[in-house]
Predict the structure.
Amino acid sequence: MKKRIILIQPKPVNKHLISEATGRLYPLGLLVIDALTPKEEWDVEILDEGVEPFDVRRVNPETLSLAGINSWTNQAARAYEIAGALRQRGVPVILGGPHPSALPDEALRYADSICIGEAEGIWATILADVKNGELKSVYRGGMPTLDRVPILRNPLRDKYPYGSIQTARGCPYDCSFCSVTSTNGAVIRYRPVADVVEEFRNIKQKVVFLVDDNFIGSGRAGRERALELCKALADLRRQGVRKYWGTQATQNLGREDEVLDWMYKAGCRLVLFGLESVNSRVIDDVNKGINTLGDYKMHIRNTQRHGIAVIASFIFGNDADSPTVFEDTVRFIKDVRVATQNLNIVCPLPGTRLFDEVAQSGRLRYTNFPADWAKYNLHEVVLEPRTCSALELYKKRKWAERQLNGRLNLLKRTLRTLWDTRSVSAAAVALGWNLQSGSREREYQQQIELLEKEMRREASSLELSRAPQSQMADISGRRY
């Protein structure tokens, strides 16, 4: 008789924010685990809370041999909640993903077992141990070669509006705010191009995201591999498998004319550049030396000249930010005619040098873990800023969004992107990204209101603590 496994992708426990998990991209990690599981021995159920909430009452513990939960940091509180509910029913739980890998001691308090690192090299051992009733508390998957990553075929993917695929892991640049190097290693590992092409062919969606951390990789080897992959995808396109795709890369991609030509031929219409800041002091501070190679303006314009719209991604709240960082950034985006942008707030994630530094110095604003992990999402101010208040940071970000994507500006930007890229599809993809501005502004306003409420509550508590006993009853009756 087959044994049963349920694999769960939690939804962040943050009911206040609009930008929760939406279920637009299928959970790649869980699908890889599913593909690694021999179906002649196991039945696998995948539950993505971005699509459907988990209900422990639907679980039959007598037929379930294992629950696997994948967790990013902002999902950790919900992952632990689900794990607790399952364990109460007698279901053994294993936790994996970036957050348990970064904080294994914490994760192990909420599960029977954890998997540190990547699962491809250890999953068969985990399954054998479950069958034998010998599940260990800790498994270390390491960083296997990516020829061990299976080609995904699960039809569950077809229910999502967008496709996604990973072709490489790892990053050598080790930026202070980023956990990729600690999670996936400093050496970039690549999947075989033939495997990528076959999986890409089987994706039903017409818009696909290549979720590699840096498509152009590092050095000559990265450039040659990007060319090889794009030529293979372009050949697939000539065979009638016509998809549009986007990815992310370091901004030096913009000087690689041959690679950009082949990216366009292969169907790429959107690329995210992690610029982080227009201030060179910030770039030095976060150790992103790759961003000192060449000129932002030239690389963005050259990329868009090749028919590929650019998302310029920025991080605010850095210690080296200037007082005019938002005004400078808006001016840069307009002057360079960037198709669209991400306006993020610096987020110290576990596993990064930034987290270690600010945790030790006592600058984390929210430390009621695991509940507060939901706030560590690139949108909320979790690090006490040095150059402005948290409230000012929220208000200035909302101002910048309005400056860039008001109705008239949105029309102008779309026409400019169409002119710069000479590509209707690139302009359409950028417009779709920019049209989310309304929901982002509502989220920003919500964050402002929540912080103001929090500030009033703290002020009230402080006033109560300072008031003479005779005034306590009167003060406690006030409303804020």
